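Hey,
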Amino acid sequence: MILVTGAAGKTGWAIIRALARRGESVRAMVRRAEQVASLEAIGATEVILGDLLDGSAVHRAVHGVQAIYHIAPNVSPHEVTIGERVITAARFAGVEHFVFHSVLHPQVEAMPHHWLKMRVEELLFASGLFFTILQPSAYMQNMLAYLDAIREQGVYKIPYPPHTRLSLIDLEDLAEAAAIILSEPEWRNATLELVGTSGLSQQEIAHTLGRQLSRPVEAEAIPIETWQANARSAGLGEYQIETLSKMFAYYAQHGLVGSPRVLGCLLKREPTSFEEFVERTI
């Protein structure tokens, strides 16, 4: 049995589907009862309700599993506390393999949510558990949130310059790699950067979208204040807004780029390119 924490988000869904395709039994941990049926429909063997900040709930979720794929809530100020509780429960339960969903370049203190994931990685190093740390780049799927506006306006709006270079990964590739890692012991005690593309400028991304949509698309930098106002209107919390604003400032200055070679070795094929993702999705 493999436990997937934070299973209600798009990452959890993708991981569960990939594990189910390999015939693995999956226990999903979520907070809300209305999420149970949909998770069972995509392949979860069991769904357990509980908050990751509730130590007793975490111990119940971990009991009897052989492996854990730990996904923390997105941009959470409680990342380290949650990580500590899940790791402690895993040690107590004698879990054989702990896979932590981290992020590309967690060493960067200027991006607070990256830096907190590095603190969880440190806890794993000292835990005595067999672990694997996955450090994925940003998802190609994140672009889909802007798709309607891009179709209508021909503009891909981002809160950093169009020349900013970012590496991306197809979430389906990440899920396939995670399923391999969870089922093959030789990947234990590894820290793996999972990157699907070399650094793509935002203008390159816009032009790829435009070719598939059969219309010109240009990348346009918007003021961070505009992004913040839109995020507040969408209900994002102030901690998340402040943290992501710092990430965008780092992107603007340095980008965030990695190598696709590790992912290719895991998958035994070339990772999905952004163009292939766009063709498949749009």
